[in-house]
Every structure is written in structure tokens, then in C-alpha cells.
Amino acid sequence: MTDYNSPSKSTQHPLDLPYVGAGPITAVKRFYQNYAKFSGRASRSEYWWFTLVYLIAIGLILGIGITLGAATGTTDSAGELQPGPAFLPFALLFLLLALANIVPSIALTVRRLHDANFSGLLYLINFVPYLGSLALTVLNIFPSNPLGARFDAPGAGGQYPAQPYQNQTSATPYTQQAPPAPYGQQGPPTPPVV
């Protein structure tokens, strides 16, 4: 039996399940390993560590590019500074980084919404001018919710099956299920009883 919560380095944490307490390096690795995966969940630490690392990287690229561009720039007839040729490589690097991360950042946000037990379609509120991105940021701050396991792929290790009542008919009496394990302490799935 594999214990996904043990601190052992040899155990690979499943990519579909949120990694509670992920550090910045782990968050960036998991971001690129789940490049275009919109199913599953991502913990707050995965989301916010990657966001911080990405913003720092963008800030450094633009800061160095603007500084070097201003140092090699010229002033036009209107008195405005035109960036010099040293700005171009940093502008291209910024553009490539931004374009390469569009799809995976949307996927990460959708997985983060799933972890808070929201539908990934709530990402579309980001397109509402001004308030949409603020509302999406607030939703990403919400704590993890164990009920978000409903967005896990079948057999991914979540507590709830994809369709919990698929075999229940009106003639079958309701049976009490055991409460889910505390968040972050879920073990591997048990085989279904047929």
C-alpha cells in the first residue's frame, strides 16, 4: 500500500490529486507535468506558488529588458524615449513565456476551482470586464473542500466515485456510507463492491 502523505522522496504524489504543502519547485514541476490537464484538482499551495514564481520571472524579464532598452534607447523629436535594440530579446522572451503558459495556467486555475468544489466553467467569469478577474482571484483563495473529489478521474484516489448513485434504484434502501477521510489523508481507492 502506498502512503501518498509520507515525506518519502521516492513516492510520486499522483498528479490528479492536490499536493497539500507543495513548495515552489514542486508547484512549478507539477504545473508543467499537468500541462493541459483540466481534470483533477490542484491545492492552494500549488496554485499560489506557481503564480508567485511566474510573476517574479515576468517581472525580472521585463525589468531587465526595460532597463537595458532605456540605456541603449534614443529620444525622438517629441522628447519620448524609444527603447534601444537591447529591449528586443527580452520582449521576445516575455512573449514566448506568456504564450507558452496560456493553456497550462487556465488548466491550473480550473483544477484549483475543482479543489474548492467549484465547476471549472467558473473560469469564464474572468472575461467579465474589471470584476471578473477579481472574482476569480477570490474563488482561488477559498480553502480546499473534500467534496471536490468528485472532479477526480475514476480510480485517481479520491473518496467519491465519479457517479456515486449509479447502481442505486428506487427499490434499493439507502445505506449510510462512511464519512470521508480528512482532507489530505485520503489513501488509495478501494475496489468497488459488485
Explain the overall architecture.
The chain is mainly α and 194 residues long. It has a domain at 24-151. It contains five helices and two strands; from the N terminus they run ααββααα. Strands 1-2 form a two-stranded antiparallel sheet. Helix 1 (24-33) crosses helix 2 (44-71) and helix 2 (44-71) runs antiparallel to helix 3 (87-100). The radius of gyration is 22 Å and the shape is elongated.
Distinctive features:
194 residues, mainly alpha, disordered N terminus
How large is the radius of gyration? 22 Å
The oligomeric state is single chain
How would the global form be characterised? elongated
Total of DSSP H or I helical runs spanning 4+ residues: 5
Tell me how many strands there are. 2
Order of helix and strand elements from N to C terminus: HHEEHHH
Strand content: under 5%
Structural class: mainly alpha
- What order do the strands of the largest sheet run in, or round the barrel if closed? 1-2
Q: Sheet bearing the most strands, described?
A: 2 strands, antiparallel
Rounded to the nearest angstrom, the distance between the terminal CA atoms is 22 Å
Unreliable parts: 1-8, 158-172
Q: Quick check: average pLDDT?
A: 82
